[in-house]
Design goal:
Elements: H1 2-37, H2 39-49, H3 55-62, H4 66-82, H5 85-98, H6 100-113, H7 115-159, H8 162-175, H9 177-189, H10 192-201, H11 204-213, H12 216-244, H13 248-255, H14 263-271, H15 275-282, H16 288-304, H17 312-338, H18 341-352, E1 357-363, E2 366-372, H19 373-382, H20 386-394, H21 398-409
Antiparallel strand pairs: 1-2
Helix pairs in contact: 1-2, 4-6, 5-6, 5-7, 6-7, 7-9, 8-9, 8-10, 10-12, 12-14, 14-16, 15-17, 17-19, 18-20
Amino acid sequence: MENIELPKKGKKKKLKLILIVVLIIIPILVIGLIYYNNMTFKSKINKVLGNVPGGVGEYFKSSPTESERNDKKTFLANHYLSLDPAIAADKLYIVKKDDEKLYSEIIRLMNSNSTSRTGEIIKLVRNIELRKDLLFSIHDEIQKEKQNELLDEINRLENQDLLLTINEIENRIQTDHEFKENILDIFTLMDEGKAKDILYYMDDGIREDVLSSLSNDKRTSLESRLSTKKIEITKLADLANFYEVKPIEEILEEVGNSNKYSMEELGIIYKNFSILKSAEILSKIEEDSFVEELFGAIRKEEELNGEEESITNEISKSIQFITEYNKKIDDLVTVYNKMSPDKVAKIVEQMMGNNTTVTALEINSEPIFQLTDASIIIDVLSRMRNKTLSSIMDYMSTENASRLTQALARP
């Protein structure tokens, strides 16, 4: 029995739902549609519902009738016709923007009263519309031109010499108000690699002002890049200290060309070498173009750091001194190779006992490379053939031969 009753209940519920839709919801929708589209019907309904006691009646009593609405439109039409055409056009332009239908109705009423005056006002409204469109068009065009000018300036700053860019930005920030206002956009749109290099060498105070003007994300990103660059430069300075104590032959392959390090990196390394170390390395290099390019990199790093005097002059002077000295040592080697070992042995023993400075390379009145008889003869013997050197040592006293061996064994 229960299995038979369930379908009947379901049918009854469906039937009730259909009746509600047909008898209540659909009529309400139809009445609502008529109410909002038929002003006569709306006016009659408002009049009937206005008699309902309470808030509902008050609401519908206050709703304007179609006659009242038409009266207001007629009043507005006459009012606009009474105004100066330019003033009327301004007001009607606002009406048209907010309610195109109301505008059309008012114009129709105005036209029925005065075709010529209405036509004049309509023309002025159209002119306002065109002027507004032109205003936005001109505004957009100017903004686009300014954006293109800004991008061109950024491109120029990115591609010109780094020092020139830094000096220009620092000067213009202090003297050019418009440029200062654009600095946020410049560093926001600029390639971050270029921006990082500019900011790294910039005046500390100006750099902080620029960074503080940027968005949090952009500032964080650039500060991270600046920190990385500082670490990289510190590592290169540490490498210079590491290479400083190494024999020339061991490091020449690494810092005597640009295979391992870029020229910019080599500039930082050599800038942190002692002048004598730089000269000793570079005196072994025959490629003048490499030395010239390296000096350019050193000078650029000095200029970026605000250093007025360059160490390249001292390095050049030292290279010349060491080169000439090495040539003279080579000449002495040739001479001693032709002498008898016993005569050379006597000269060696005599010179080894003299540690008085005979000449020196001075930089800023400070001797950085001192030469004595002892150091000179050691340099000569270190370049002689082992067989010749052995023959010379055979004629030396045991004590002097021992001292010579120790000297030649030093790095």
